[in-house]
Amino acid sequence: MRYRSSRRESTAWSREFWILLIVLAGMPVGLALASEPAPDAEPETATSQATAAEGAAATPEPSHQRFDELQQRVEGMEGKLRESAHARKSADQARMEAERRLAEAMQTLEALRANQADLEQRLSNCESARTQLDEALQQHNAASKMLYRVRPGDSLALISLRVYGRSDQWQRIFEANRHQLANPDRLTPGMTLVIP
C-alpha cells in the first residue's frame, strides 16, 4: 500500500513538473491539460499511455531549449542594464565635472571683472594725470618763449632760419609779435621779438 501511495505521488509530481515546464516554455495550455485525464473520461489504454509518455519524453528538449533562450534573454537584459548603469554613472561624472568647471569659470570671470574695474580706475587716473601734465607743459611753453633782439639787416625769414633752421617759419614769428609789428618787412634794430 505504501508503495502504491509513493508511486501515485511520484506520478502526480512528475505530471505537475511537466505541466509547469510546458507553461513556462510558452506552449499552449490546451496541450498541457490534454496530458491529464478528464474526470469523466475513460481510462487510457496502454497504447495511449505509451504515446503520452513518448510525447512527454519529447517535450523536455524544446522546454530546455526555451529555458536556455529565456536565460540568454535575461542575461542580455542584465548586460544592457549594466551598460545603462555605467552610462548613467559616466554621464553623472561628466555633469559633475562640467558643473565644477563652470564654477571655476564663474570665479575666474568675477576675478577678471574686479581686475577690469581696477584697470579702468587706474586708466582714469592716468588720463587725469596726463591732462594735468599737458596743461603744465602748455604753461611752461608759454612762459619759456624765447626772446630775440633784432640786429641790423635782420628780416623775419633770417630770424626764422637762425631759430628754427628753416626760413619758412617767419609767419609764426610775425603772428606772435603782431602787437608791435604792423608790417613784416619793417624791423627796427634793437627791438625785442617773442619767438614762439
Automatic annotation (TrEMBL):
<dbReference type="InterPro" id="IPR018392">
    <property type="entry name" value="LysM"/>
</dbReference>
<dbReference type="InterPro" id="IPR036779">
    <property type="entry name" value="LysM_dom_sf"/>
</dbReference>
<feature type="coiled-coil region">
    <location>
        <begin position="88"/>
        <end position="146"/>
    </location>
</feature>
<feature type="region of interest" description="Disordered">
    <location>
        <begin position="35"/>
        <end position="65"/>
    </location>
</feature>
<feature type="domain" description="LysM">
    <location>
        <begin position="146"/>
        <end position="195"/>
    </location>
</feature>
<dbReference type="Pfam" id="PF01476">
    <property type="entry name" value="LysM"/>
</dbReference>
<dbReference type="InterPro" id="IPR052196">
    <property type="entry name" value="Bact_Kbp"/>
</dbReference>
<feature type="compositionally biased region" description="Low complexity">
    <location>
        <begin position="44"/>
        <end position="62"/>
    </location>
</feature>
<keyword id="KW-0175">Coiled coil</keyword>
<protein>
    <submittedName>
        <fullName>LysM peptidoglycan-binding domain-containing protein</fullName>
    </submittedName>
</protein>
